[in-house]
Write a structure and sequence with these properties.
Structural class of chain C: alpha/beta
Number of domains of chain C: 3
Helix content of chain C: 25-40%
Strand content of chain B: under 5%
Oligomer: heterotrimer
Radius of gyration of chain B: 21 Å
Distance between the termini of chain B: 46 Å
Largest sheet of chain B: none
Shape of chain B: globular
Number of helices of chain C: 13
Chain lengths: 183, 342, 490
C-alpha cells in the first residue's frame, strides 16, 4: 500500500517536473487573441455587428460576449476562418445583423453635395475628401462600403454602387456541378 | 457563341469503359474457375451482379442521385464479380445476397458512392460474410476432377437456392477445404509441408489443383490490363513482390514448416487480389511511391495472415488494413513537384 | 545534331493536326475597314492613350504609351482616323469589354517615320532594350509578357538563351510557318537578343514534328554563316513547349518553383518574338502584325495569315472560307490551353497565335466522381497530384490546395484531357487560384482599412486632447487672473 502511494507520488512528481519544464522551455509567444481575431475581420468598420468597429467586435469575441456570426461583410468565409481560429463549429450568419451583399462603394452625386462635412465625420477610414462648403468626393480605392456615410447626408446625395467588374477583377468561377458528381 | 473551359480536347476513355475492361480481363480466370469448380461459380456471379445492380439502383434513388449514369459506369458490376469469385462455389444464395448488398449499400453508397468509399466494397462484403458465417464460407469444393462429380448448371442452381443435394449425391462428397486451408490444418497437426501435400489430393504441382490455372489466367488478364493502361504496374508488382520476399525468406529458413513461394503466388486469391482487388483505385494509394508501399504492405500482411493467422487466406484482411493506411501513406509519399528542391 | 536531352515528367502524345494549316503559304490578311486595338494586350499595366478621337494616325504611330515598367505601348497597325475610344469586346475568357482605340483605315497604309538601327552591335544593350520596349514587343508565344524585361539580365549571368520553337499544342502552326518562310529574320533577331543578354550559348529548341522548319533554320544559319546557334530537335510530346519543360529538356535544369529562368542562368523567348525584335531594331518597325493560324473543323481552307493587330477575327474566318455566323465555337490559342472567345467581332491581339473554329463546342460529357485512378498524376508535367488538388479545390479548402503546390500548375490541361471521369480539372484550379488571389487582395485592403481607421481614431483622440489642453489652459489663465495669490494644489 505504502509503496504504491510512494510510487504514484514519485511518478506524479516526475511528470509534473517534465510538464513544468516543457511549459517553460517551449513557451509559445503567441499573438494575443484579439489581434488574431481582428486580422480575420474585413475591417469594413461598418458596425453591423453592433460594436463600433472591427476591433471592438474582436475584443468582444475574445471575451466571449459576441458570437462569431455577426459580421455580414466577412460572409461565410469569415465565419469559417473565425471558427477555425477559435476551434468552434461554424454557424450561419445571424440574419439580425444583415445579409451578405456584393461589394459596394459609396458614390457622391457631386452636383447635389452642399459641402456639409457630415459624411466626412462619419467615414471610419477617412475615404471622403472635401472641406466645409466644398464639394466632397469618395476615394473609391479606400472606401470599405460600410454605408455609414449614407444616413448622415442631409440632401441624400450618397448612394451605394456595386463595384464594377472589369477584366482585371474578373475571376474563373467554379465549374457547375453536374447532377452526377458528389456534393 | 458557345464557350467552354480548356482543354477543348479529351482523349480519355470514360469510367464505364475502364470498368468494362476490368471485366473483360476477369473473363479467362472466371472461365477457369467454372471449369474447375463447376457452374455454381457462374450462378454466384449472376446472382451477385443482379443484387449489386439492384441495390445500387435503390441506393441511388434513395440518395437522390441520377441512376442511369452510375448504373452504367460498371463499378457495381466489378464489385459483384470480385465478391462472387471469392465465395465458395456452392454458397447458399443468401450468402451472396447479404455479402453483395453489404458491399454496395454499406461499404460503397453509405460512404458517398463511387469515388468516396474508403474500403474496397467487395472485400468489406467478403469479410462481413467470413466473420458472420464462417462455416458456410469455408466449405469449398474439391475440383471436379478430384471429386469425380460434375454438377450441371441446373443442379448447381438447385443446391445454391434450396440447399438440397441432387439425388445420388451428398454435399460432403463434393466439398473439401481449399488447399490453403488444408495445408494450414495439416501444419497445425505438426506435419511437414511435404507430408501434407502428399496426404491430400487438392494440391497441384505449383499451388492448389486447379488454382494454379485460375491464378495463371488472372495473371494473364492483369498483364493485359497493364498493357491497356487500365492499371499501373506498381501495386501488383509490389504486392506479389512482398508476398514473394516473405514466403521465400521463411521457406529458406524452414522448408518443412513454410510452404514454397510458388505455392503462395498460385494459391487462393493471390493473383485476383494483386491485379483486380488491390488495384481498386478509389480505396488504394494514389501516389506512385505510395502504391508501392501499399502493394508491398498487402503482400506482407497476406503472408502473415496465411502463415500465422486464424484464416486460411489473407488478401481480404490485408487489403482492408492497407485501405485504412492509404491516406497516411499518400500524405507521406507526395512526389517531388517539378522545380522544388530534390 | 546530337545533343543530350532530358525528359520532363508526364506529358501526352497528342495528334498534331498541323498539316491542315501548313499546306498553303502564309498570306497577308486583307486590310479591314476598322481596326480595334485594345490598350491591354500584354501582362502588366494598361497602356495610356495618346491620341484623340478624330485624329489622323499613321501606320506604326504610337497611339497609347506604356504606363509604368511592366507595360507595353500600342501602335496603329495602319494609317487612318481614330473614330472611337472606349470599351469594346476583346478576346478574353470573361467575354467582358475593355478599353480600345478604334481606327478607320484609309487604305493608304502610310507609314510614320521609322528609325532603323541596322548595326545593333554598336548599341548599348540598354538602348536596344529601349527600342524593343518602344516597339511594343511582348512574348508572342501566348503569354504576352513585355520582352524587354526578359532581355535584362538584372546583374545575373545568363549563360544560355533558349529560343522556343517547340509549338507543342495541336493545330497551331504560326511559328512553324514563320520559321519556314522567315528563318533569316528570326536568326537576326536572336543575334540581337543574344547581344543584349551577353549570353554565351544559344539554342533553338524545336519539336521533331517540324522537319521543314528545322531545315529552314539550319539552311539560314549556313547561308548567313552564323556560328554558335544550335538548333536542337526535341521529341514531340505535349507540353514540350512549356517554358519550364523546354528548358529542362534542353539543359536538364529545373526552373525553381516561384522562380524565373534567369535565376538558373537561362532566358527563354519565342521565335516569333525574335523576328519581331529584328524588325523593331533593324527596320524600325513596331509590332503591328503577326502570323495567326486559322484552322479547326469549321474552317474550309485552314492556313496561316499575316494579320494586322486589331483586325476582327470574323474577317479572318471569312478569308479562309468560313461563314462567321455558322461558327459556334471559337477558341483563341490551341485546343489544350486556349480559351473560348465570346464573339468573333473581337480583334486579333499581340498574343493571338491561333484561331480554332468549329460549328459547335465539343460535346461536354457530364462529370463523374473522381475515382482516384491517378491518370492525371501520370500525365502531369509538373509532377503534381491533380486528384488531390481537385479534391481540395472542390471542397473550397484553398489553403490545402496550396499546400499541394497549386501554384506550380501551368494549366496545360493534360490532367483534364486524360480524366476518365471528365472532370474539368483545370477550371477548378483556375477557380482556386482566383479565389486565393482575391482573398490575398481583400486581406491587403483590410490591412489598409485597419491602418486608416486606427490613424483616424488616433487623430480624433489627439484633436480631443489638444482641445482639452486648450480649454484647461484658458481655464487656468482665467483662474490666474481671478485668484493670483492661490497656489495650484498638488
Amino acid at each position: 500500500m505504502l509503496s504504491a502511494i510512494l510510487a504514484f507520488t514519485a511518478l506524479a512528481a516526475a511528470f509534473g517536473l517534465i510538464l513544468g519544464f516543457a511549459a517553460v522551455r517551449f513557451k509559445v509567444e503567441g499573438d494575443p487573441l484579439v489581434d488574431k481575431i481582428d486580422a480575420l475581420l474585413p475591417q469594413t468598420q461598418c458596425g453591423q455587428c453592433t460594436y463600433p468597429g472591427c476591433r471592438p467586435y474582436a475584443e468582444a469575441i475574445a471575451k466571449g460576449e459576441a458570437d462569431i456570426n455577426q459580421c455580414p461583410p466577412g460572409g461565410e468565409a469569415g465565419i469559417i476562418a473565425l471558427a477555425d481560429l477559435l476551434g468552434r463549429d461554424p454557424k450561419p450568419l445571424n440574419a439580425r445583423h444583415g445579409a451578405v451583399k456584393p461589394k459596394m462603394v459609396a458614390v457622391i452625386d457631386e452636383p447635389l453635395c452642399i459641402g456639409c462635412t457630415l459624411c466626412i465625420q462619419a467615414c471610419p477610414v477617412d475615404a471622403i475628401l472635401g472641406a466645409a462648403k466644398q464639394m466632397h468626393t469618395v476615394i473609391e480605392q479606400e472606401c470599405t462600403g460600410c454605408e455609414l456615410c449614407v444616413a448622415p447626408c442631409p440632401v441624400d446625395c450618397i448612394r451605394m454602387a456595386p463595384v464594377q467588374q472589369d477584366i482585371r477583377s474578373w475571376k474563373w468561377q467554379a465549374p457547375l456541378e453536374a447532377a452526377g458528381s458528389h456534393a | 457563341m458557345q464557350t467552354s473551359s480548356s482543354p477543348h480536347l479529351h482523349s480519355a476513355a470514360p469510367v464505364s469503359s475502364v470498368m468494362l475492361r476490368v471485366i473483360y480481363a476477369l473473363i479467362p480466370g472466371v472461365i477457369a474457375t467454372i471449369w474447375f469448380f463447376g457452374w455454381g461459380v457462374a450462378v454466384n456471379v449472376m446472382l451477385a451482379a443482379i443484387v449489386a445492380l439492384a441495390s445500387e439502383a435503390v441506393m441511388l434513388a434513395a440518395r437522390g442521385r441520377p441512376i442511369k449514369p452510375f448504373l452504367l459506369d460498371g463499378s457495381a458490376l466489378v464489385t459483384a464479380f470480385l465478391l462472387a469469385l471469392s465465395l465458395p462455389p456452392l454458397a447458399p444464395w443468401w450468402i451472396t445476397l447479404i455479402g453483395t448488398a453489404f458491399a454496395i449499400v454499406v461499404a460503397k453508397q453509405l460512404y458517398g458512392g463511387l469515388g468516396c468509399n474508403p474500403f474496397n466494397p467487395a472485400m468489406a462484403g467478403y469479410v462481413v460474410l467470413l466473420i458472420s458465417f464462417p462455416r458456410e464460407m469455408t466449405q469449398w469444393l474439391a475440383p471436379e476432377t478430384v471429386s469425380g462429380h460434375a454438377l450441371s448448371f441446373a443442379q448447381a442452381a438447385q443446391v445454391i437456392f434450396s440447399g438440397a443435394a441432387p439425388p445420388g449425391l451428398t454435399l460432403d462428397a463434393v466439398s473439401a477445404a481449399t488447399p490453403l486451408d488444408t495445408l494450414k490444418t495439416h501444419l497445425h497437426l505438426g506435419e511437414t509441408v511435404e507430408a501434407a501435400r502428399r496426404a491430400s489430393p487438392v494440391f497441384g504441382s505449383l499451388g492448389g489443383l486447379g488454382w494454379e490455372w485460375i491464378n495463371g489466367l488472372f495473371l494473364a488478364g492483369g498483364l493485359w490490363m497493364m498493357y491497356k493502361k487500365v492499371i499501373t504496374w506498381h501495386i501488383p508488382v509490389a504486392l506479389l513482390g512482398g508476398l514473394l520476399v516473405m514466403s521465400t525468406a521463411f521457406h529458406l529458413f524452414n522448408g518443412d514448416a513454410y510452404v514454397s513461394p510458388a505455392f503462395h503466388l498460385f494459391s487462393g486469391a493471390a493473383m485476383l487480389g494483386a491485379f483486380f482487388i488491390a488495384t481498386d483505385p478509389v480505396s488504394a494509394c494514389t501516389t506512385p511511391r505510395g502504391k508501392l508501399y501499399y502493394g508491398a504492405g498487402i503482400g506482407i500482411l497476406t503472408y502473415i495472415i496465411r502463415a500465422w493467422g486464424g484464416y486460411p487466406d489473407g488478401i481480404a484482411f490485408a487489403v482492408l488494413l492497407m485501405n485504412m493506411a492509404a491516406p497516411l501513406i499518400d500524405h507521406y509519399t507526395q512526389p517531388r513537384v517539378f522545380g522544388h528542391k530534390k | 545534331m546530337n545533343a543530350k536531352l532530358w525528359r520532363f515528367p508526364g506529358g501526352l502524345h497528342l495528334s498534331g493536326h498541323k498539316t491542315e494549316s501548313t499546306r498553303l503559304p502564309t498570306q497577308r490578311a486583307r486590310l479591314p475597314k476598322r481596326l480595334t486595338l485594345p490598350l491591354h494586350q500584354h501582362i502588366g499595366a494598361e497602356a495610356k492613350p495618346v491620341v484623340a478621337v478624330g485624329e489622323r494616325v499613321l501606320k506604326g504611330q504610337v497611339i497609347a504609351r506604356a504606363e509604368g515598367y511592366v507595360s507595353a505601348p500600342v501602335h496603329a497597325s495602319s494609317s487612318g482616323t481614330v473614330i472611337a475610344a472606349g470599351d469594346f469586346p476583346v478576346p478574353h475568357p470573361s467575354g467582358l469589354s475593355a478599353p480600345c482605340i478604334v481606327i478607320e483605315t484609309d487604305g493608304a497604309e502610310q507609314w510614320c517615320e521609322r528609325h532603323p538601327t541596322p548595326d545593333y552591335t554598336a548599341q548599348d544593350p540598354s538602348h536596344l532594350r529601349n527600342l524593343i520596349r518602344e516597339a511594343g514587343i511582348v512574348g508572342l508565344g501566348g503569354a504576352g509578357f513585355p520582352s524587354f524585361i526578359k532581355l535584362n539580365p538584372l546583374g545575373k549571368t545568363v549563360d544560355t538563351l533558349i529560343l522556343n520553337a517547340a509549338e507543342c499544342e495541336p493545330y497551331i502552326t504560326c511559328d512553324d510557318m514563320l520559321m519556314r518562310e522567315r528563318a533569316a529574320e528570326i536568326i537576326h533577331g536572336i543575334r540581337i537578343m543574344r547581344h543584349a543578354l551577353h549570353a554565351a550559348h544559344c539554342i533553338i529548341g524545336i519539336e521533331d514534328n517540324k522537319p521543314e522548319a528545322y531545315a529552314a533554320l539550319v539552311r539560314a544559319l549556313r547561308e548567313l554563316r552564323i556560328d554558335g546557334i544550335q538548333v536542337i530537335q526535341v521529341p514531340t510530346r505535349y507540353p514540350a513547349g512549356g517554358e519550364k519543360q523546354l528548358i529542362h529538356v534542353l539543359t536538364g535544369r529545373e526552373v525553381p518553383s516561384n522562380g524565373l529562368p534567369v535565376h538558373i542562368g537561362i532566358v527563354c523567348h519565342n521565335v516569333a518574338t525574335a523576328a519581331a525584335v529584328h524588325r523593331a531594331v533593324q527596320l524600325g518597325e513596331p509590332l503591328i502584325s503577326r502570323y495567326v493560324t486559322i484552322t479547326g473543323p469549321g474552317v474550309p481552307e485552314p492556313r496561316n495569315l499575316e494579320v494586322l493587330l486589331g483586325t476582327p477575327m470574323a474577317e479572318l474566318l471569312q478569308q479562309c472560307g468560313a461563314d462567321p455566323s455558322s461558327i459556334g465555337h471559337l477558341v483563341m490559342g490551341g485546343p489544350m490551353m486556349g480559351f473560348s472567345v465570346h464573339t468573333s467581332s473581337a480583334p486579333v491581339v499581340k498574343t493571338t497565335n491561333c484561331l480554332l473554329a468549329a460549328e459547335h463546342a465539343p460535346a461536354v460529357q457530364a462529370a463523374m466522381p473522381c475515382i482516384r485512378c491517378g491518370a492525371c498524376a501520370e500525365a502531369c508535367p509538373a509532377n503534381l497530384l491533380p486528384q488531390q488538388l481537385y479534391w481540395h479545390a472542390h471542397a473550397k479548402e484553398f489553403d490545402k490546395a496550396q499546400n499541394y503546390n497549386l501554384f506550380d500548375c501551368i494549366e496545360c490541361g493534360c490532367c483534364a484531357a486524360v480524366c476518365p471521369s471528365h472532370i474539368p480539372l483545370v477550371q477548378y484550379y483556375r477557380y482556386a487560384k482566383g479565389e486565393i488571389w482575391t482573398r490575398e487582395r481583400e486581406k491587403q485592403k483590410a490591412d489598409v482599412a485597419r491602418a486608416r481607421h486606427e490613424f483616424r481614431l488616433a487623430r480624433l483622440a489627439q484633436e480631443k486632447a489638444e482641445r482639452e489642453a486648450r480649454h484647461a489652459q484658458k481655464k487656468a489663465e482665467l483662474a490666474g487672473k481671478n485668484a493670483p495669490r492661490e497656489t495650484a494644489p498638488h
